[in-house]
Automatic annotation (TrEMBL):
InterPro entries: Gram_neg_porin_domain (IPR033900), Porin_dom_sf (IPR023614), Porin_Neis (IPR002299). It comes from the Bacteria. Residues 8-324 form the Porin domain. This is Porin. Keywords: Cell outer membrane, Ion transport, Membrane, Signal, Transmembrane, Transport. The lineage of its organism: Bacteria, Pseudomonadati, Pseudomonadota, Betaproteobacteria, Neisseriales. It comes from Iodobacter arcticus.
Length: 364
């Protein structure tokens, strides 16, 4: 044992440096108080709820002798009162940045998901980013991010899956920023994921962040594709946005008993900023699902409004209302998780679901 300790000490000394790599800590802290109508387990009555969420990111960089940069991230979201996750389940990756772009290896977000979630600001992401056939996270991801060329950039991601082509996920995204415009497009495909459903999830992880390995095969095979095109434009105090997303689930689906299911989505949003005040109004349409080519009357319209007031350079207070209007009572598209619709009692005789929320968001 003593000999092994001496050897470990000697090896460590060989690589010791007079300066440490740069490490930074960042994140956010959010507090929400809300009232939601037509809730699960309440005979479709209302319910008051609270949510506290703290995200901590630990980032490190080291300038290499070649001039390139080694980067890493360790991140976690701690939510109360119902969840406390192990540190690193949110993100844990190592990257290498050069003049030709950046590659990352490890547990990381889907770049398509981040684009969808960022585009659907002010209370629209529950359907635009969290509902659908896209993946949220790749536990065994390999990613490439290009440099910017006159405002244009692209990224490619691949999840190794089971190490064979029988279970894997991949995507390609592109972005353009310039002349007041921000345009993002993406296409992705996941094959034989153990967590495949109408709820966007972690690839192959059955809902467990940072995990992988639960794959299906044979008669339980599945495949999903997602296409999106989002465009935002800012002029003066106004910002406008519009988006389109197509969800496709093919073959035998977990939670979707059909050979092929497609759902189209549309989004509109407008905002106005006046000093510390920011006003937002949004509209979404989830089209009727097509199940094996036949339309099902399960579409919905969603309107939302949010007011933000800047309390400091890091903190914003907000008030939000989100109202879902179902075409058919109890039929919320192909959703299987009530959490996607503010814990609305899916399958009930109700056609509407509303959430009122106030809170603060702080960056650090």
């Amino acid at each position: 044992m003593f000999k092994r300790v001496l050897i470990a000490t000697a090896v460590s000394a060989m690589f010791a440096a007079p300066a440490f790599a740069d490490v930074t800590i960042s994140g956010s802290a959010e507090m929400n108080l809300m009232y939601q109508t037509n809730q699960v387990g309440t005979d479709s009555k209302g319910k008051v709820a609270e949510e506290i969420a703290v995200i901590v990111n630990v980032d490190g960089t080291d300038k290499l002798d070649s001039g390139d940069t080694l980067k890493w991230r360790l991140a976690q979201k701690v939510a109360t009162p119902d969840r406390y996750d192990s540190f690193g389940q949110r993100e844990a990756w190592i990257g290498y940045e050069t003049k030709f772009g950046e590659v990352r290896f490890g547990n990381q977000f889907s770049n398509q998901y981040l684009e969808l979630d960022g585009f659907a600001s002010s209370g629209q992401s529950n359907l635009w980013a969290d509902f659908g056939s896209q993946q949220i996270q790749y536990a065994n991801g390999v990613s490439y991010f290009s440099p910017k060329f006159s405002g244009f950039s692209f990224a490619g991601q691949y999840d190794l899956g089971n190490g064979r082509n029988s279970a894997r996920a991949m995507e390609l995204t592109a972005n353009y920023t310039g002349y007041g415009f921000n345009v993002a497009a993406g296409v992705s495909e996941a094959k034989n994921s153990g967590s495949m459903s109408s709820e966007a999830g972690t690839f192959a992880g059955k809902g467990t962040w940072g995990s992988s390995g639960n794959f299906v095969s044979g008669s339980d095979s599945n495949k999903a594709r997602t296409y999106n095109l989002d465009a935002a434009y800012k002029v003066g105090a106004f910002d406008l946005a519009a988006g389109y997303k197509r969800n496709e689930w093919k073959e035998n689906q977990v939670n979707l008993a059909a050979d092929k299911v497609t759902v189209d989505q549309f989004l509109l949003r407008g905002g106005y900023t006046m000093g510390k005040n920011n006003f937002n109004l949004g509209y979404q349409r989830v089209q009727d699902a097509k199940v094996n080519g036949t339309k099902v009357d399960n579409g919905m319209n969603v309107i939302n409004a949010q007011y933000n007031y800047t309390l400091s350079k890091n903190t914003v207070a907000f008030a939000q209302v989100r109202h879902h209007m179902l075409d058919t009572a109890g039929q919320a598209s192909v959703m299987t998780a009530s959490s996607q619709l503010d814990d609305f009692a899916i399958g009930s005789d109700k056609k509407n679901a509303t959430r009122l929320m106030v809170g603060t968001w702080t960056a650090f």
